[in-house]
Design brief:
The protein has about 800 residues and is an alpha+beta fold. It contains 23 helices and 20 strands. Helices cover about 35% and strands about 10% of the residues. The strands form seven sheets. It has a five-stranded mixed β-sheet with strand order 2-1-5-13-14, covered by helices on one side. It has a five-stranded antiparallel β-sheet with strand order 7-6-18-17-16, sandwiched between helices. Strand 6 and strand 7 form a beta hairpin. The longest helix is centred in the N-terminal third of the chain and has 25 residues. Pfam families: Transgly, Transpeptidase. Keywords: Carboxypeptidase, Glycosyltransferase, Hydrolase, Membrane, Multifunctional enzyme, Protease, Transferase, Transmembrane, Transmembrane helix. InterPro entries: Beta-lactam/transpept-like, Glyco_trans_51, Glycosyltr_51/Transpeptidase, Lysozyme-like_dom_sf, PBP_transglycosylase, PCN-bd_Tpept.
Length: about 800
Amino acid sequence: MSDEHQTWAPRDPSAASASPGDDGGAQGAQGKAPGKKGRTKRPKRTGWRRLFPTWRMVLGAVLVAGLLLVGGFFAGYQLVDIPAANAGADAQSNVYFYKDGTVLARDGEVNREKVKLSQVPSNVQHAVLAAEDRDFYSQPAVDVRAMFRAGWNTATGKGKQGGSTITQQYVKNYYLGQERTVVRKAKEFFIAIKLNREQSKDQIFEGYLNTSYFGRNAYGIQAAAQAYYGKNVEDLTTAEAAYLASLLNAPSAYDVVAQPGSKPAALSRWNYVLDGMVKEGWLDSGERSTTEFPVPGEAKPSTGLSGQRGYLVQAVEQYLTGNGIIDEKTLATGGHRITTTLDKKKQDAFVAAVKNNVMKKRSDDREPDKNVRVGGASIVPETGEVVAMYGGVDYTQQYVNNATRRDYQVGSTFKPFVFTSAVANDSTTQDGRRITPETYYDGTNKRTVQGPQGSTGYDPANEDDVDYGQITVRTATDKSVNAVYAQMAQDVGPEKVRDTAVALGIPKTTPDLTASPSIALGPATASVLDLTEAYATLANHGRHGPYTLVDKVTKDGTEIELPDRKTEQTISREAADTTTALLRSVVEGGTGSAAQAAGRPAVGKTGTAEEDKAAWFAGYTPDLATVVAVMGQDPDSGTQTPLYGALGLDRVNGGGAPAETWAAYTEAALRSSPAQEFDLRTAPGSDEPQEPGEEGTDTAADPDTPNDTDSPSTSSTPATPSAPTTPSSPTPPGNGDGGTGTTGDATGGTDGGGSTGETGDGGTGTSTGTEGGTDGDNGDGDGDTGALGGGLIEGVRGAREQGA
């Protein structure tokens, strides 16, 4: 057989290496598929190499971890939603300011005032960014590198540092909390990413500025500006802004006032912020070199609601809600900046006046003194602005505001409204005489009020049961004679009196504002503030506008519209000014003479509630109307109590502590302004003297004459006066009587016109402080002088002698 035609099978390397008789090798060779090469078995790892994973294991672990991370990220992103704000994130206090911008009070536990980013100056924004996150506007919501860097610096002893962006810090402040857990950090991570997609950088930065804590219980940049520098955020300097930004890193540790030893660390952080501003181009290097460290002010105690603050806040809230400016629920959400009309200097003066004239006179040894309460209010007549108020000894001790409560009778401070109504309505007495300050009334104690049909059955007692007999309205006002004013109210018409009081400013819903003759004695329980508004209308010549306690309200930088204050002439100027002229003598020589201590032109009226449970003084100068009331109330039961024995006095009346307090406050409140004179336009003929009727005179001469009668023509009702006699021309000597003198400065009567040698009689003296009558012509007897001050006593007839 030839070799050319032989075929060779491929060589099996394994077969060649197999030992003879090794069937397995042969079989293994035979089991290999044709054309396949066998693989060499890898030897096992031995020694130290066994301790380390292979590159395949590392790669696999990385891939698995990557898959887990990606899966975890997508799962977390889907599962973690942006939650509602945490309980304290939106909490704000309403902040109340005096008119000059000084903080009056805060009514919330959280000291936070939100502001819009547009209200925060660029230098303040840049200071915060330089301190906390210089790349905020260019970087993503989460800076992973910064987180790792912060962790590395902390681990290597370079100090504890934060790796959170401003977005993450805002999420922590607003949505989560300050707890340090992995779960919270994970939530923060995912919420920050989502928030960054839903809100703009400006919105996030604004939220951060309003929620960050700066120390001193100040949350937000505005509260911090007030807490450390006593100013609004828009007024901060760059140096001050840098210091506040420094506090974000460690608020308590960097308060150089509370912790003096922290100044080096605070100064270092402050320099870091400023240098960062220069580096970012936000601050000129020249300005940086001249910037000095701005030491903050002393930490002030919380301006809570103690002292007068609570009363003032309560009154302002009642004003806002009562006038529909803000509803109660909205106000309770906080965040309002409320600038009041209150004047801090005047407010302080009111507190001092009460302290010196009432509180210091109390004694622990006198039981009645524990019941003494004081209420007060002061209004500028022209504007209606409430500039001061006194609500009580301390809001935390006595919740009820004595200036706004409506449960004490106003007493005789109501009487001027009766007279105002008389002038406004051209009212007359029962016998047809026009009611003016010089009109005579019967001031007999417990005189029964007479109506058109006779007795009304109402017979009020005068204070101390004094009988005055026939007196003018002016005198009755000076001495606060009840009998006169009850009759005057009847003469004017109780309904008209009520309408006049309402027109002046007394609320129509005031308890016991009843249209009856008793309305004149002040059973109505108007508040101190109500009464002040009414007296301010008199001071403003009869033009009335509701009082105002609020000058401006804003929330989140947006101003809330306030109602326009409209004034109108509710009472004629003549009626208001004639009342002012009438009240002048109350201060000059009547029951309110203590008010003269104000040292400027002033008018007013005293008042005492039934059973002496309250004593009042209401008065005004041309530029300030003020009411002060001293009240009696048991501090335990709340029951109204008489003031007998209080302040070391048998009785407390309006001319005492209330008038003294009024004078002390008014003097201090107006000390820096020049005194003004009253500009009055009184009703025509209001100063002309009148004379009582003869029957009225008889009653005055005999106070024991019965007056409780149904007949309006008896002494209970002033009789019709005789008509004035026109002075006659001189006549030849003969018999004649002198006429009646009615001129304020004239002689009582004219010469008699009798002939020579016959008798002449002196006239009746009614003028003020002049002779009762002149001689009978050619008679030698002179009429005696009439009574000084009122011309009340008839001049004695001239002596009768025969002429020559």
